[in-house]
Amino acid sequence: MLRQAQRDDSPLGRKVKEIMNDGGLVDDDTMLDLVKERIARPDCDHGFILDGYPRTRRQAAQLEGLLKPNMKVCVFKIEVEEDEIVRRVVGRRTCSTCEQIYNIFSDPPKVDEKCDVDGSKLFRRADDTEEVVRKRIATYQRETRPLISHYEKKGVLRNVNGMQPEEIVAKEILRTIC
Predict the structure, then answer these.
(1) Does any domain span residue 35?
(2) What DSSP string describes 54-69?
(3) Cα atoms in the 13 Å half-sphere on the side-chain side of 122
(4) How many H helices and E strands in the chain?
(5) Which of 24, 56, 80, 107 could cross-link to 103 by cystine, CB 3.0-4.6 Å?
(6) Tens digits of per-residue pLDDT, 72-130?
(7) How far is residue 57's CA from residue 46's CA, in Å, rounded to a whole number?
């Protein structure tokens, strides 16, 4: 949702881009508006997945106010060591055409900086630098980590070892939500 807002190049998108490029979090009211608009679409009628939201206690309360009574909440805490998070994000590259994602360390393209699918040039997002990633991790520790106990108390938190191969992490998550 945030990336789409940036691509739309609206005033909201430019505001989001500036905040994210500096490693900050988009304010709660802006996020609520984005989430509310998105989950109101028909493709969310039978459920949806939010990645990276909510990030604060206030956002969690706002989200809970949007949900219909019959909606089941399931929260995943994917545990990954800090240096590995930095390596994964700093190594991320995306195709400028088809948006295929690579990682120069763990899943590089066959030809350096070229997409295997269509040969387009790969790009690195402006906020995929070590400095910005470490700022985001610090922000997570300060603002988002307190949500762990909130969701543990509700009995909806699932811990997943994110240091495992991607396929195993995906299977663990799917086993819980299916």
Answers:
(1) yes
(2) --SHHHHHHHHHHS-T
(3) 20
(4) 8, 5
(5) 107
(6) 899 999 999 999 999 999 999 999 999 999 999 999 999 999 999 999 999 999 889 99
(7) 25
